[in-house]
Write a structure and sequence with these properties.
With 291 residues, the chain is of the alpha/beta class. Helix content is 40%, strand content 15%. The longest helix is centred in the C-terminal third of the chain and has 18 residues, at 196-213. The two termini are 34 Å apart.
C-alpha cells in the first residue's frame, strides 16, 4: 500500500518504513484549504492501514510550515459558505482544523512534526497532537485567533494547555503574538531547535530509532495510553488499562523477543505489525462514553 499518494497539495514519500508527508503549496506558504485538509486525513488513513509504515514525519515545502487557513476573502470563516462536516443536520459544523487534529490524535503510527518555518493559526494547532515536535531555528508559531476575530480551533483549547500549561497557553492565545522557536522550546511546545538544513535529518533520526528498536504494536499502545490517559479521573483507571495491555502483550512473540534480545545483547526483531496485530482489548476507550 506504500505506493505514491496522488494528491494536489502534498508530497508523499515512504522510505525505510517512514512516511514523509510534505505540505506542498509553497506559493501560498502551505496555507490550509479544504483540499489539503481532506488529503492529509486520507494519508493518515492510508498510513494506519499500511503495515510497512512505522512512523510519520510531517513538514512543509518552502519557507513556511503552514501559515494558517487560506484567507482568500474576508468572510472565509463564515461556515454557511463552506462545505464542512456536520455530525447531523441539526448539529453545527465542525471546524476543519479540529477534524485534522483529531485525525492525527487517532494515528496508529508515531507522528513527528518538523516545523521548517512559520506555523500560524491551524498551522500551529494541527501539530499539537504530534508525539515529537521539532523546529527550525527560523520557525515562528502564532496562535493568532483573537487577532482575526475568532477563537482557538482544532481542539487546541484541549491540547495546548496540556502541552505547555494553562498560563503559557493563555499568554500565547490572548495576545496572539508570534512565538520564537526558542520560546516554544523553553515552554515545551517543541522538543528541539535545529538549523534549517539539520531539521529533517533530526526528524529522520528519531523515526529511525523507532523503526529499528521499537515494537510497532507497543508504540501505538503507548502513544494512546499517554494521550488518552489525560482524560482519566484516577490512576486506578490507568492501572486497569495498563494491566490488560500487559497481559495481552505478554503472550505475544514481541514480548519474548524483547526480553531475548536484551539477554542476548542484540537488536530486537519484532514480528508484530500495525494494524493486524493489535490486541483484542484495543481500543479500550470505546468502552467509555465520550459523547
Amino acid at each position: 500500500m506504500s505506493d505514491r499518494f496522488q494528491g494536489e497539495t502534498l508530497r508523499y514519500e515512504v522510505e525505510n518504513h517512514v512516511l514523509t508527508l510534505t505540505l506542498d503549496r509553497p506559493e501560498r506558504l502551505n496555507a490550509l484549504n479544504l483540499r489539503m485538509g481532506d488529503e492529509i486525513m486520507q494519508v493518515f488513513d492510508r498510513s494506519d492501514a499500511d503495515e510497512d509504515i512505522r512512523a510519520v514525519i510531517l513538514t512543509g515545502a518552502g519557507r513556511a510550515f503552514c501559515c494558517g487557513f487560506d484567507l482568500e476573502r474576508a468572510d472565509i470563516f463564515d461556515a454557511s459558505k463552506l462545505d464542512l462536516h456536520r455530525d447531523s443536520a441539526d448539529e453545527p459544523v465542525r471546524d476543519l482544523g479540529g477534524q485534522l487534529s483529531l485525525r492525527i490524535f487517532d494515528s496508529l503510527k508515531p507522528v513527528i512534526v518538523a516545523v521548517n518555518g512559520a506555523a500560524a493559526g491551524v498551522g500551529a494547532t494541527m501539530l499539537l497532537p504530534a508525539d515529537f515536535r521539532l523546529a527550525s531555528s527560523n520557525a515562528r508559531f502564532g496562535f493568532v485567533f483573537t487577532r482575526r476575530g475568532i477563537v482557538p480551533e482544532a481542539a487546541s483549547s484541549w491540547f495546548l494547555p496540556r502541552v505547555v500549561g494553562i498560563g503559557k497557553a493563555l499568554d500565547w492565545t490572548l495576545r496572539g503574538a508570534l512565538v520564537s522557536a526558542q520560546e516554544a522550546q523553553a515552554a515545551g511546545l517543541v522538543r528541539s531547535v535545529h538549523e534549517p538544513d539539520e531539521l529533517l535529518p533530526a526528524a529522520r533520526a528519531i523515526a529511525a530509532e523507532i523503526v529499528n528498536h521499537v515494537s510497532p504494536v507497543s508504540a501505538v499502545l503507548t502513544r494512546q495510553l499517554m494521550w488518552r490517559g489525560l482524560t482519566l479521573d484516577h490512576p486506578m483507571e490507568a492501572h486497569r488499562i495498563e494491566s490488560r495491555l500487559i497481559v495481552a502483550r505478554g503472550v505475544h512473540a514481541d514480548s519474548r523477543e524483547g526480553v531475548a534480545s536484551f539477554l542476548e545483547k542484540r537488536p530486537a526483531n519484532f514480528s508484530g505489525r500495525v494494524p493486524t496485530d493489535l490486541p483484542d482489548c484495543f481500543p479500550w476507550w470505546s468502552e467509555r462514553d465520550f459523547s
